[in-house]
Amino acid sequence: MKIGVLASNEYYGLDIVARALIDNINFFQCSIKDIFQYDYIIIHGQPIFQWPEEYPPLIFYWVWEFNTLLPMHITNLLSSQVIKILVYNEYCKNQLLQAGIPKSKIVRVYFDFFKVFPELRNKTEIDFFKKDRLQYFTFGRLHFRKNIPDTVKILKQWDKQFKFKIWSGLFPFEKYHQEFESETLQAIDGDKRFELFVQRSIPQTEKYEMFKTSWGGVFLSLGEGLGIVPLEALFCGTLSILNKLPSWIELYGEDYPFFVENIKKVYRHPFHNNFPLYPAYYPVKESVLERLEKLYSLSEQEYVEIVKKYQQRLNAHFENAKYTPEIVVSALKNTVNNK
């Protein structure tokens, strides 16, 4: 039996599926054009927008987030053709239910953070000799959901001589990447405080060094299903300013002191009128600037106390979570055996 994995994000998509299934199933990374080489397909992310009319059985559609404004044919496909839909948070699960997806199709799974990043387990030390109070970063593909051009525009209004590093992997669809890279560069507009780094993959050692030398991350995504990079940064001893998204409230709790207030609106793609409408959480500029000032002003003792508090909270979250690979493999075997 051959199973194809169609992942929208090469690193965090396929890699996570691989770690869950590698000892149990013969699976292969595939593209839409060669799906008929496989007995079953697993989809990770949202390439379902381009899905053909005929296809092999879809075992799983692995959803990071879900929006209730998807075209009706996609909702119908999820309801009728996908055998199981995997979700990482209760918000996504509730969105699916609101869209009319049968409860029996939805499987709540958990990201096994310390399985994927064992080197970050029980990390607590912070070296303030390395940390630069004026250095900040964001990390993510140049994709509309990551909201990087608007992040740049807001930060340009902060009155500090900061350094802001934007690290981006390549977006799978080259045309979109070029468009969003151009929009990001236009937002920077030669401002020397901003540096943009684009490369296909970034070694973990480089990422961790960036986290450890920075005072904070800034993540103003319009929507997230999990948000791995702020978690990595936190377990490297670095706080992040986060847009107050339902999935992040579920992880960090309502009281996280660096949540940014936002306004929920419908996102319309700036370059493509036929792109699906998307419910998005737009950060409030004044709230972002206030959180930046608050983070910048922390004493070292205050910084350490907040890091430790949320490391402990998230340690408990991941340690107590059900083991995702077992859930996935069990569901996969049951699905195939019942065919």
What does this structure look like?
Helix 3 links the parallel strand 5 and strand 6 (106-108). The chain folds into two domains: 3-112 and 321-337, Rossmann fold (3-Layer(aba) Sandwich); 116-319, Glycogen Phosphorylase B (Rossmann fold, 3-Layer(aba) Sandwich), CATH 3.40.50. Helix 5 (148-155) runs parallel beside helix 6 (174-188). It is an alpha/beta fold. A six-stranded parallel β-sheet has the order 2-1-3-4-5-6, sandwiched between helices. Helices cover 38% and strands 21% of the residues. It contains twelve helices and 14 strands.
Summarize the structure.
The chain has 339 residues and is of the alpha/beta class.
Mean pLDDT: 78
Q: What's the helix-strand series? A: EHEEEHEHEHEHEHEHEHEHEEEHHH
Residue stretches low in confidence (pLDDT < 50, at least 5 long) are 9-15
CATH fold naming of the largest domain: Rossmann fold
Q: Give the oligomer, counting copies of the same chain as homo and different chains as hetero.
A: single chain
Q: Shape from CA axes? A: globular
Strand order of the largest sheet: 2-1-3-4-5-6
User: Radius of gyration over alpha carbons?
Assistant: 20 Å
Number of helical segments with 4 or more residues: 12
Structural class: alpha/beta
How far from one another are the termini?
Answer: 12 Å
Helix proportion range = 25-40%
CATH class of the largest domain, named Alpha Beta
Report the sheet-strand fraction. 15-25%
Tell me the number of strands: 14
CATH architecture heading of the largest domain: 3-Layer(aba) Sandwich
* The CATH H-level homologous superfamily of the largest domain: Glycogen Phosphorylase B
Largest sheet: 6 strands, parallel
